[in-house]
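Appendix B. Raw example, untouched.
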Amino acid sequence: MTSGAFSFGEFRLYAARRELWQGERRIALPIRVFDCIEYLLRNRARAVGRDELMTAIWGRTAVADNLLDQVVLRARRALSDARGERAVIRTVPRFGYAWVAPVEIIDAAPASTHDAPRAVSPVARRFPSRRWLAAAIGLSAVACIVAIGAMLRDRAIVPPARADSVARTPLAIVMPLEIDGDSAFEWMRLGGMDLVASRLREAGLPVVPSDNTMALLRGTHGESAAPDAAVLAKAAGATLVVSGLVEPAVGGWRVALRPAYGAASPAAGVGESQDIVAAARMAADELAVQLALPGAGRPPLAKDSALDALLQRSQAAILSDHMDAALRVLDQAPSDQRSLPEVRYQRAVIDLYSGRPETARQAFAAISDGVSATDDPLLRAKALKGLGMAEMRLADYTAADTAMSEAVALLDGESDPAARYQLGVVLSSRGGLRSVLHRPDDALFDFGRARVLLESSGDRLALTGLDSNIGVLEETRNRYAEAVPYFERAVREIAAFDVPNRELRIRENLAKARVLLLDSVAAGAEDLRFRTLIDEVADRQLAEYARVIRAWTLFAVGRTDEALQLLRALRELPHDAGDEVRIAWASELEAEHALSIGADAKAADEATRTLKAHWDADYPQLYARAWLMLVRAELRQQQSDRARESSTALAAWAAKSPDDLARVYASLAKAEVEVAASENREDAASAFEQALADADAARVPFEILEVASAYLDFLVDKGDLGKATLVAERVSAWAPHNYDAALVQVRLYHALGQTGAWHAALERAQSLAGERIVPPGLAQAPSSTQEPDRRLGDRRTFGTLAR
C-alpha cells in the first residue's frame, strides 16, 4: 500500500507513521486494529469481505471468526463508532464490512510529541554519547515496556531458597481466565489471571509474570481465545499451566482453577463469594493447598477488595496494551481511592510508559516523599525506581542514579521475596544507567547481581533486556565480539514472545555489531525477520531508524538497489527535530554510494548536508566519516585546496572530540590529501601509520579495514609490496565473510602477480559481491612479471559506523 494521510470527522490517520489522531491526542492502537482501520479506509469505495480482511490483517484466512469480530469491535471503539450508530464502519450482512464515513486526503503531518534534543556534555574518550546509549540500552518510552510488568507487580516471584531446590521447584504459568457471565466483568479475564498469579507466588510458587504471559500468548497463539496449554508451557519453560473459569453463582461469583498441564495428580481450587475478587483469591489459596505449596494455608494478608478490583481492572487494560483505558479506570474511581499511594503509583507508571516522563517524575517523587521506609519499604523503593526511570527519560542521569541507588539501599536489607525480586529489577535498570554514565565496572557488577536474582524468576523478558543491556555496554567499549553472544542469546529468547519493539531494538544492535565485525554474511542472513519487525512496530522513529540500519546492512551484503530505495523512501517521509540523526545518517550513506559510482559532485553535496546537522556530539564516528567522504569527493574533483581545508577542519574538530575513532578518520583524511600532493609521500605514509595505529587501539574491525584498504592502495601504487603484504594480512581473517576484506586480498595477489592465489581470492570476492562489480583491472589475470598496476580502479565500497 502507498503512504497516505486521511481525515474523517475529528480523526486523522497517517499511514506512513502508523498513527491515528483524535484532535490533538494520538490514540495508541494494537497493530492488527490499526491494520484493520487502514485497510477498510483505503478500500472505502467498496465492501470488504471477511476473508479478505482476515488476509489483510493476519496474512491468512485460517483465523477464528470471533477474533476478527474482536478486532473490528476495538477499531470501532477507537473511532467512537461502537454505540450502534455505525457511522464509520458498517457491517455488511453475510459478507463483511464497509467504510462509510466521508474521507478527505490530507498532506499535513501531526504535531510532534517528541522531546526536544538536549545538550550533552563531553565525556571520557572511547565512549559514544549518552543520548545514543540511552536509546540503545532501552531507556526510552518504548523500552519502558520492558520494566512496566515488574513495576506494576504487587508480589514478586519467589526464588528458591537453596541451589539444590532449583531443579525441584516448578515454574507455573496462569492463562487468562474464561468468563461466563456479565460482560461488565470481562476485565477479570486478565485482571483475574494476574491476581491468581500473584497469590500463587505469595504461596511460594514461581509464576511467569503476566506481561510475559501475554507476550507469549501473542507469539505462540496469535490472539486465540483458547491457547494450547502444552504449547504455552513449552514456550514459557513452565512445568505447570493453570486455567480458570469465572461464572455466576448463587448470591455472587464462583471461580474454579485447575492445572491444565503438568500436574502429577488432580488438583483444583474453587472459591465462591459475593465479591468477584475475593472469589478469585479464595480459589487461588485453595489451589495452593492442593499443590502443597510451602506458603499454602497461611492467613491471607489484609486486602481491600475494592482497591484490588480497581487495580486489577486497570492492570487488565495495561496487559491488553490499552493505556488510555487503564487511565480511565483509575480516573473514574472515587476520590478517596484515587488519593491512595498504590493508585497514584500505578497511574505514574502508565504516564511513564505513555511518554509523559515529567508528569511521571513528579508523581513518583511525591509518592517516595510520602511513603516512609518503615511503613512500606517495597512501595517506596518501587517509586524511587520509577523516579529514576523518569529522570533517565529526561536525561538527568545524576538524579536518576541517586534515586536508583536509594532504592537499592532500601531493598538490599530486605529478606522478603517480593523485595528481593524488585532488587533484581532495580539493579538491572541501574546497570543500564551506569552504562550511560560510563561506569562499566559498576554496570557489570549491577548486571551480575541482577541476573542472580532474576534467573529463577520466570521473567524471561527481564532477562532478555539484561542480556541486551550487557551487549550494549560491551559495544560502548568497542568490544563487539564480546557483545554479539549477549545479543544472540537475547534474540533466541525473545523469539517466543510477540514484542516487536523490543526484538527490533535487540536486532538493531546485533546487526550493527556484526557489520562492524565485518561479518556481513551473518548480518544479512536475518534480513527478512528484520524487515518484518520494522513493518510491525508502531513507534515511527524506531521504525525509521531501523530502516537506516537495514539499509546499511543491505549495502554491506551488496543489495545496493534495495538499500537505495529504502533510503530514498525515508527521505520522502515527514520529519521533525527528533529525526535529525536518521536524516543525517541517510545522507552520509548516500554520499558513500555516490563516491562508489563516481558521482563525486553528488557525494560532496550529501556529505555537506550531513555535516550541517547537529549530531557531532552524539555520533562522532558518523560525523567524522562524513568529513572523510567530503575530502574524498573534493579530491576526486581535483579540488585539492578545498580538500586540504576540509581535512584541516576535520583534524581540528577530532582533536576536541571525546571519541578516539574520530582521530582515525582525521588521520586517514590527512593521508589521502598528502597522497594527492605527490611530493609529500613520507607525510602520507606517516599519516597512514598513525591512522592504522589509532584503529588498532580502538579494536573495531570496520575501521581497521577502512584504513588498511586505503593504505594498501597507497603501498601498491608506491611499489612497496612487502609492506602491502603485511597490511593485507591484518584483514585476511575477515575475507571469507566480507567483500571489502576479500577485495584487499584480490588487489594484493594481483599486484604480486600470484595468479593462483589471485584467482581463488577473486572467486571469493565475487561470491560476496552481490550487485557490486569487482573493478575491471582486478578482474583481469595478472602477469608474473607485471609492474604494480596504478589504475586498477577504486576497490572501495562503503558502509558506515553507527554506535
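End of appendix B.
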